[in-house]
Specification:
Number of domains: 2
Radius of gyration: 19 Å
Number of helices: 11
Strand order of the largest sheet: 1-2-3-6-4-5
Largest sheet: 6 strands, mixed
Amino acid sequence: MRGGTGHRRHRPALTFGVIEPSALADGCVELRLDIVLARLPARRQVMDQCLGDLHRILQFLARGNYELRGVALPHTPTAGLSRYTRCFGAAVHPDQEFGGLHVTPRTLSASLSDVNQSLRQMALDYLNRHYVDPGQSISYRVRRALGSTLSTTRGSKSAVADLLFLHPRTLQRKLTLEGTTFQELLDEIRQQTALHFLRETRIPLAQLTGLLGLSDQSVLTRSCLRWFGLTPSRIRSGRGSADSSG
């Protein structure tokens, strides 16, 4: 699909999406990984391992058709960028909104002519059983939509409702039946996102303000004080303890 949309597979802890076109590398497709669990320990290491595993899987499956043009890290790496560059053999971009590999369309058009048909069917059956879209919970879908679009929709209920093909009033009615509101979910996702970027990256606070869809940096400061009892700079410096449980 074109225009920043794509196909996604979901698990409780991880989502995978094919986003076309890539916003990082011209003429490429983004293979996006997003960790869903907000309190996952060693989040940076998990993301690095997932990206490395995906890189090796694509090398094996696409072989000579695999063309990696960029790697996006949603954090500031603890090791030097040169180590990542040697591992992936491509430009590595830290402090991005999402983690992922940016590959040429040729990579995804590679023919798997040598695939074992029995194993192929087993894999498809597994995907169909375990990686279905979680349509049973509207609050889950709203969380995922907000997490993916905060910087562009700025947390607009109407924009998220459009993404879910719902009228805003219908969306709110469904959320009420699940015991929550759109504003509560928006505040939750902003809180989790802020804590991640303050702890895991060194992006400027002005940029973080935009990623959260907030109007200015003073709103970010007030929000962090309300959520964590600490200013953004104190959270980033590690002075005090910030807990995403609110």
